[in-house]
Design a protein that fits this description.
This is FAD/NAD(P)-binding domain-containing protein. 40% of the residues lie in helices and 23% in strands.
Length: 308
């Protein structure tokens, strides 16, 4: 009877816990679970390299833990790269076709409008479906998934600042570093993701800019330029190399150039843009043949931190 009474009191006390307290307790329990047993393999980073390595290790019978700071698996490609950019390319293409080509097939619109929040929601839905799919693969293959920022504290230990609060220590006999890449900025330029945006920020603009300058004519910059150009933005692309997408075949570059010009994207190759001025409502980039607003996409670099 005494034990039953004590259990009831503990249950009543638990019901009185406030949400922050409950979250702290849950984080502590997660930290204890993560620290309780050493993994055969610890993977830092849940991108295409990291999550595939984690799943493969688990399939081979190794106790595996994957640490990811973003809170969603799939890395840059799935969350803020290939997938969302293709989703926006598709949506903007549909609008562009409806505005410019459907009439030739006898399809007319009296009031064609862009619902940007709905377009972004569709993009987010596509991303969420795929990230949840990877989490499902983790569960199926019994990969321990720790959401937080990891950093080495010893050759075999990783301290993790958990997204939900608190911390955990993950121990591993073998550790795979798969931290991926980070956004590359211009010297002396601070990316605020408002007026000066990275490729990540360009995927999440809340309004259609009137003018946009894209610094860097790689495939990422040209994709983003194409998306916003189709939606009505006046786009100028500045590239230091003699040609756009310099890593691609010459014939592909020529065809790409023609397509961009047909879409009325203004392209300045072999022209190194220099930073001009940044004002409250707009910013200026000076180059040999242009002076435009709103900088975006200088490229990517490897992530210099041994933590993720």
């Amino acid at each position: 009877m005494a034990m039953a009474s004590l259990a009831r009191r503990r249950a009543a006390d638990a019901l009185l816990l406030r949400r922050p307290q409950a979250a702290a307790w849950a984080s502590a329990l997660r930290g204890y679970a993560a620290s309780a047993e050493e993994s055969d393999v610890v993977v830092i980073g849940g991108g295409p390299g990291g999550y595939v390595a984690a799943i493969k290790a688990a399939q081979m019978g190794l106790k595996t833990t994957c640490i990811e700071k973003r809170g969603t698996l799939g890395g840059t490609c799935l969350n803020v790269g290939c997938i969302p950019s293709k989703a926006l390319l598709h949506s903007s293409h549909m609008y562009h076709e409806a505005k410019n080509s459907f009439v030739h097939h006898g399809v007319k619109f009296s009031n064609l409008e862009i619902d940007l929040p709905a377009m972004m929601a569709q993009k987010d839905k596509a991303v969420a479906g795929l990230t949840k799919g990877i989490e499902g693969l983790f569960k199926k293959n019994k990969v321990d998934y720790v959401k937080g920022f990891g950093k080495f504290v010893s050759p075999s230990e990783v301290s993790v600042d958990l997204i939900d609060g608190g911390s955990a220590t993950v121990k591993g006999k073998n550790i795979i570093i798969a931290t991926g890449s980070d956004v590359k900025s211009l010297p002396g330029v601070i990316i605020d993701e408002k007026k000066i945006v990275s490729s990540t920020g360009a995927l999440a603009l809340t309004e259609i800019p009137k003018k946009l300058v894209v610094i860097g004519a790689g495939y990422i910059g040209l994709e983003m330029g194409s998306v916003w150009n189709r939606l009505g933005t006046e786009v100028t692309v500045v590239e230091f190399a003699p040609d756009i997408v310099p890593s691609m075949d010459g014939e592909i570059r020529k065809q790409f150039q023609r397509m961009l010009e047909k879409q009325k994207n203004e392209v300045h190759a072999q022209d190194k843009g220099s930073w001009g001025r940044h004002f409250w409502e707009w910013c200026q980039v000076d180059c040999g043949a242009c002076s435009w607003w709103r900088a975006e996409c200088a490229g990517s670099r490897y992530c210099p931190r041994i933590c993720w």
